């Protein structure tokens, strides 16, 4: 029952804040904030439950939804989804606090969209029925479209439609794949079911299995995004409202990583294993490609987008090497990378507020001028490049360590990409914060209380995950062991 | 006598028609005529529940399937006449023509014989000619209406000729005109003429359904006619012809693999081009015209599946898809007839002046695009499952591509709705009946999208 509440609270909260807009703007802000706080409390309670059970599934909820197709409202939480849910709730809370100052038009509608995105993302993480997964996966798109097209900057309609077409293609591929899986399972067992637990044991032929696995892989790779399918991300990032892009990078990407972990490895362990080398090669290409392109960008936000493409290569490698170490590394890396890039995006928004530009060429010599911003930016950038002591380092290290046993060459090549990461992020720091001051019209606004708090919370979380990563490992160890054992069987 | 009571909906409509003719010649009061029409439609709608399954051999068959579509047709006729009451306040003959056309459509749905089939088709389309060329005392629109009416008349009568010729050719071989399994047997002895006859019939029906090689009149027709009448064309004619087409093909056993391949190619082309052609249109009704072409393309795939193996699931798919399509189309045209403007740029920033209408229109468009939470998603799921179940891979891929293209133009309209433009206040009556009808339709679509189980099990009874 707690899961059902968890699922519906953001949707109801969104509707409430939409309807409160007519009465008073403050009410809708408060209701959005209040919704997120309830969610945070609930997810911490779930964490507490998780530590006290030995069962893989912490809480389950199951009731019939559409009897005709054997579709259940089947929700369950395990360590992996719990860590993802916790992360998205924290990020959602931060983005709502951020948006208090930023969003001035149609506030109710903005919170409605934001909360619906969050709700559908939580739905994706909780859904244990593939139809439900698909349902939330597709719902997620259209509030995102509205956020881009209503609160974005120039050319927002075209960008929004570009984003929408990409994600829709991914959605259609996912839909076809899942239905094919269900129908072929129906032919074997004579039972029409969409449930994850029973589809795990489905008897699928090898060829069909490879095709289905590829379908899942492509549809998640569009969302992740990975090298040949990435072109929507930089545009969308550049044209997004700053707090919308916080959401985008933080949350949309994680759903794809979660999908790869849960569906690809969970449903098709054997086929994923045989596909692993190719997936890793794609990952290496996107590591290098993203890093090289990030180096030559002039817009900070485009730079962030390419850097996240580059980082997702590591996540891909970590997921597909599929042993306990690298999977834990991947989850760790997703969490800390999301946090650090979210921090950097907030900082780029703050810089825009002061300098009125995202262009790196018009910045420079900002160190010592804007109060605490350069300090935060420096530490967050160091986190992005994976300095020991931050979660990113732990993540990268574990991914590479776990992968080295199986694919040493790929590990060596991909670890060289870390140098490129260091180069572009230090280059960014150098160009923006050191050197001569180029911008005369600098508004020297100091950070206000809430911004300092947000940035410090993000930094604090990154350092906690860097110095004591065991917290996050403990959350997800049981279910990761389960997945890794399943693939181990096929080595 | 008891047996004849089984065609109650048609007889009630006939009685309504006669009363209407008499009243119009005495008393030309719009409201009275409208009320008589509504009462007639409602009575015949209620009379459906009294009917039992019967077979009037060899002309008419009444089963659950045809009853369901009679219901759907009557509902859409009801909605269209209400739309036209608010849209034009003076002309009473519209209702007469609508009822006449509805009778034809119902006859078409019930028919299992070529004669009733032809009579129904002609009754429906001849009344439609009058509806299409309905002048509005507005120079631009009238010219368009005339153009589309003449186009439709010429092409439609051509199609009828094709149909008649095809029927004659079939009669030449089988000596019978009923749609029964027993007679239509294709084997090695089948002459070329018979196959040509079947092809001619398919062509004429393809014209009525506006499948791609025969589609060119559709967008003009949609653009030229008044919104209520467009709603009528988009729902009643499409439903009835499609259902009759289904019945014809259900009887024709395995129309040779060659024809099946042709149907496959036609449906793929219809899906892809129907969606592609809609991309660059600037008139909302033209876009909907192309989208209706694409929707019928999705439905055609079901017919191809039916050629392989008939099972209940196919009928269920058609029922659900046509239901969602009808409701969504009615809703959209209801809004268009409320706003009374069809250029896309007029809809810029509708959200800021009329938020409720914009939200309803958004729900309808999302449902056409097949986004979850709306009824359209359930229909899409059915179509996909059907294509997968029969392993029609090319069709599956084309449905996927067509769906992704379709998203583009639906969302183009939606992005127009939410553009931030300062605009003058729209003038229309929000308290009109149509507004509540459209609102209830959108609620129904949402409920169907969220809790489809009840409606699915209801429809399973009818299929």
From TrEMBL, chain A:
<dbReference type="GO" id="GO:0012505">
    <property type="term" value="C:endomembrane system"/>
</dbReference>
<feature type="transmembrane region" description="Helical">
    <location>
        <begin position="406"/>
        <end position="424"/>
    </location>
</feature>
<protein>
    <recommendedName>
        <fullName>NADH-quinone oxidoreductase subunit M</fullName>
    </recommendedName>
</protein>
<feature type="transmembrane region" description="Helical">
    <location>
        <begin position="32"/>
        <end position="51"/>
    </location>
</feature>
<feature type="transmembrane region" description="Helical">
    <location>
        <begin position="330"/>
        <end position="352"/>
    </location>
</feature>
<feature type="transmembrane region" description="Helical">
    <location>
        <begin position="445"/>
        <end position="468"/>
    </location>
</feature>
<feature type="transmembrane region" description="Helical">
    <location>
        <begin position="208"/>
        <end position="233"/>
    </location>
</feature>
<feature type="transmembrane region" description="Helical">
    <location>
        <begin position="303"/>
        <end position="324"/>
    </location>
</feature>
<feature type="transmembrane region" description="Helical">
    <location>
        <begin position="275"/>
        <end position="296"/>
    </location>
</feature>
<feature type="transmembrane region" description="Helical">
    <location>
        <begin position="163"/>
        <end position="188"/>
    </location>
</feature>
<feature type="transmembrane region" description="Helical">
    <location>
        <begin position="134"/>
        <end position="151"/>
    </location>
</feature>
<dbReference type="InterPro" id="IPR003918">
    <property type="entry name" value="NADH_UbQ_OxRdtase"/>
</dbReference>
<dbReference type="GO" id="GO:0048039">
    <property type="term" value="F:ubiquinone binding"/>
</dbReference>
<keyword id="KW-0472">Membrane</keyword>
<dbReference type="GO" id="GO:0003954">
    <property type="term" value="F:NADH dehydrogenase activity"/>
</dbReference>
<feature type="transmembrane region" description="Helical">
    <location>
        <begin position="109"/>
        <end position="128"/>
    </location>
</feature>
<keyword id="KW-0812">Transmembrane</keyword>
<feature type="transmembrane region" description="Helical">
    <location>
        <begin position="364"/>
        <end position="386"/>
    </location>
</feature>
<dbReference type="GO" id="GO:0008137">
    <property type="term" value="F:NADH dehydrogenase (ubiquinone) activity"/>
</dbReference>
<feature type="domain" description="NADH:quinone oxidoreductase/Mrp antiporter transmembrane">
    <location>
        <begin position="127"/>
        <end position="414"/>
    </location>
</feature>
<dbReference type="GO" id="GO:0015990">
    <property type="term" value="P:electron transport coupled proton transport"/>
</dbReference>
<dbReference type="GO" id="GO:0042773">
    <property type="term" value="P:ATP synthesis coupled electron transport"/>
</dbReference>
Automatic annotation (TrEMBL), chain B:
<dbReference type="GO" id="GO:0008137">
    <property type="term" value="F:NADH dehydrogenase (ubiquinone) activity"/>
</dbReference>
<feature type="transmembrane region" description="Helical">
    <location>
        <begin position="117"/>
        <end position="135"/>
    </location>
</feature>
<keyword id="KW-0813">Transport</keyword>
<feature type="transmembrane region" description="Helical">
    <location>
        <begin position="287"/>
        <end position="306"/>
    </location>
</feature>
<dbReference type="InterPro" id="IPR010096">
    <property type="entry name" value="NADH-Q_OxRdtase_suN/2"/>
</dbReference>
<dbReference type="Pfam" id="PF00361">
    <property type="entry name" value="Proton_antipo_M"/>
</dbReference>
<feature type="transmembrane region" description="Helical">
    <location>
        <begin position="359"/>
        <end position="385"/>
    </location>
</feature>
<dbReference type="GO" id="GO:0012505">
    <property type="term" value="C:endomembrane system"/>
</dbReference>
<feature type="transmembrane region" description="Helical">
    <location>
        <begin position="195"/>
        <end position="217"/>
    </location>
</feature>
<keyword id="KW-0830">Ubiquinone</keyword>
<comment type="function">
    <text>NDH-1 shuttles electrons from NADH, via FMN and iron-sulfur (Fe-S) centers, to quinones in the respiratory chain. The immediate electron acceptor for the enzyme in this species is believed to be ubiquinone. Couples the redox reaction to proton translocation (for every two electrons transferred, four hydrogen ions are translocated across the cytoplasmic membrane), and thus conserves the redox energy in a proton gradient.</text>
</comment>
<dbReference type="InterPro" id="IPR001750">
    <property type="entry name" value="ND/Mrp_TM"/>
</dbReference>
<dbReference type="GO" id="GO:0048038">
    <property type="term" value="F:quinone binding"/>
</dbReference>
<feature type="transmembrane region" description="Helical">
    <location>
        <begin position="262"/>
        <end position="281"/>
    </location>
</feature>
<keyword id="KW-0874">Quinone</keyword>
<feature type="transmembrane region" description="Helical">
    <location>
        <begin position="318"/>
        <end position="339"/>
    </location>
</feature>
<keyword id="KW-0472">Membrane</keyword>
<feature type="transmembrane region" description="Helical">
    <location>
        <begin position="155"/>
        <end position="174"/>
    </location>
</feature>
<feature type="domain" description="NADH:quinone oxidoreductase/Mrp antiporter transmembrane">
    <location>
        <begin position="113"/>
        <end position="398"/>
    </location>
</feature>
<feature type="transmembrane region" description="Helical">
    <location>
        <begin position="67"/>
        <end position="88"/>
    </location>
</feature>
<keyword id="KW-1133">Transmembrane helix</keyword>
<feature type="transmembrane region" description="Helical">
    <location>
        <begin position="32"/>
        <end position="55"/>
    </location>
</feature>
């Amino acid at each position: 029952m707690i899961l059902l509440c968890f699922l519906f609270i953001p949707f109801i909260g969104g509707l409430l804040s939409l309807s409160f807009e007519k009465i008073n703007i403050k009410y809708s802000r408060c209701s959005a904030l209040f919704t997120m706080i309830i969610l945070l409390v609930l997810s911490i309670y779930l964490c507490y439950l998780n530590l006290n059970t030995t069962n893989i599934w912490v809480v389950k909820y199951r009731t019939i939804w559409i009897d005709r197709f054997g579709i259940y409202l089947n929700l369950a939480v395990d360590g992996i989804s719990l860590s993802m849910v916790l992360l998205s709730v924290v990020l959602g809370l931060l983005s709502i606090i951020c948006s208090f100052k930023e969003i001035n038009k149609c506030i109710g509608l903005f919170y409605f969209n934001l909360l619906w995105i969050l709700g559908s993302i939580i739905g994706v993480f909780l859904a244990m029925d593939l139809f439900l997964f698909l349902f939330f996966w597709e719902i997620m798109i259209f509030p995102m479209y509205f956020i881009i097209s209503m609160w974005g900057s120039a050319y927002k309609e075209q960008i929004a439609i570009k984003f929408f077409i990409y994600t829709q293609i991914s959605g259609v591929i996912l839909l076809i794949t899942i239905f094919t899986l269900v129908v072929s399972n129906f032919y074997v067992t004579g039972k029409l079911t969409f449930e994850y637990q029973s589809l795990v044991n489905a008897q699928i032929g090898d060829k069909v299995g490879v095709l289905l696995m590829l379908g899942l892989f492509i549809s998640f790779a569009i969302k992740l995004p990975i090298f040949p399918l990435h072109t929507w991300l930089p545009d969308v990032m550049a044209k997004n409202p700053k707090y919308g892009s916080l959401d985008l990078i933080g949350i949309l990407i994680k759903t794809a990583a979660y999908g790869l972990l849960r569906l690809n490895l969970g449903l098709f362990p054997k086929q994923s294993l045989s596909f692993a080398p190719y997936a890793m090669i794609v990952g290496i290409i996107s590591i290098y490609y993203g890093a090289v392109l990030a180096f030559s960008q002039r817009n900070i936000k485009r730079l962030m987008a390419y850097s996240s493409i580059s980082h997702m290569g590591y996540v891909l490698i970590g997921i597909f090497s599929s042993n306990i170490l690298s999977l834990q590394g991947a989850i760790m890396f997703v969490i800390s990378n999301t946090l650090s890039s979210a921090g950097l995006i907030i900082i780029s928004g703050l810089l825009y507020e002061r300098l009125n530009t995202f262009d790196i060429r018009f910045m420079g010599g900002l160190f010592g001028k804007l109060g605490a911003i350069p300090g935060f930016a420096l530490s967050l950038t160091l986190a992005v490049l994976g300095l020991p002591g931050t979660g990113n380092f732990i993540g990268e290290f574990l991914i590479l360590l776990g992968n080295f046993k199986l694919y040493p060459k790929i590990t060596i090549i991909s670890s060289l990409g870390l140098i490129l990461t260091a180069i572009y992020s230090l280059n960014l720091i150098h160009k923006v914060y050191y050197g001569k001051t180029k911008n005369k019209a600098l508004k020297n606004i100091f950070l206000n209380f809430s911004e300092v708090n947000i940035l410090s919370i993000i930094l604090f979380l990154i350092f906690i995950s860097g110095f004591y990563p065991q917290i996050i490992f403990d959350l997800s160890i049981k279910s990761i062991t389960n997945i890794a054992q399943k693939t181990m069987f096929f080595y | 006598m008891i047996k004849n009571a089984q065609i109650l909906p048609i007889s009630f409509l006939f009685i309504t028609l006669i009363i209407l003719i008499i009243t119009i010649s005495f008393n030309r009061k719009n409201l009275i005529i409208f009320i008589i029409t509504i009462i007639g439609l409602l009575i015949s709608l209620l009379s459906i529940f009294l009917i039992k399954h019967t077979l009037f051999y060899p002309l008419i068959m009444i089963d659950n399937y045809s009853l369901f579509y009679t219901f759907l047709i009557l509902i859409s006729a009801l909605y269209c006449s209400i739309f036209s009451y608010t849209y034009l306040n003076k002309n009473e003959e519209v209702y007469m023509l609508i009822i006449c056309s509805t009778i034809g459509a119902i006859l078409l749905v019930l028919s299992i014989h070529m004669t009733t089939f032809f009579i129904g088709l002609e009754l429906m389309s001849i009344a439609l000619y009058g509806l299409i060329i309905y002048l509005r005392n507005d120079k631009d629109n009238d010219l368009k209406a005339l153009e589309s009416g003449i186009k439709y008349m010429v092409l439609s009568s051509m199609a009828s000729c094709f149909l008649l010729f095809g029927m004659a050719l079939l009669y030449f071989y089988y000596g019978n005109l009923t749609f029964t399994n027993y007679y239509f047997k294709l084997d090695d002895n089948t002459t070329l003429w018979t196959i040509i006859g079947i092809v001619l019939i398919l062509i004429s029906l393809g014209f009525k359904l506006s499948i791609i090689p025969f589609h060119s009149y559709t967008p003009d027709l949609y653009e030229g006619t008044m919104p209520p009448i467009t709603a009528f064309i988009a729902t009643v004619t499409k439903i009835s012809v499609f259902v009759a087409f289904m019945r014809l093909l259900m009887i024709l056993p395995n129309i040779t693999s060659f024809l099946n391949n042709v149907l496959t190619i036609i449906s793929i082309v219809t899906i892809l081009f129907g969606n592609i052609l809609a991309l660059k249109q600037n008139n909302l009704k033209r876009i909907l015209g192309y989208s209706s072409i694409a929707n019928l393309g999705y439905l055609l795939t079901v017919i191809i599946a039916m050629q392989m193996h008939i099972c209940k699931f196919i009928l269920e798919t058609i029922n659900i898809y046509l239901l969602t399509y009808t409701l969504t189309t009615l809703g959209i045209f209801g809004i268009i007839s409320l706003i009374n403007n069809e250029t896309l740029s007029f809809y810029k920033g509708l959200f800021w002046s009329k938020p409720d209408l914009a939200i309803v229109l958004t729900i309808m468009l999302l449902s056409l695009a097949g986004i979850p939470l709306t009824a359209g998603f359930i229909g899409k799921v059915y179509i996909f499952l059907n294509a997968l179940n029969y392993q029609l891979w090319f069709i599956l891929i084309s449905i996927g591509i067509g769906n992704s293209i379709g998203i583009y133009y639906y969302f183009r309209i939606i992005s127009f709705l939410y553009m931030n433009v300062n605009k003058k206040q729209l003038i229309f009556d929000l308290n009109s009946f149509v507004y509540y009808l459209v609102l209830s339709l959108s609620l129904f679509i949402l409920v169907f999208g969220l809790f489809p189980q009840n409606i699915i099990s209801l429809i399973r009874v009818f299929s």
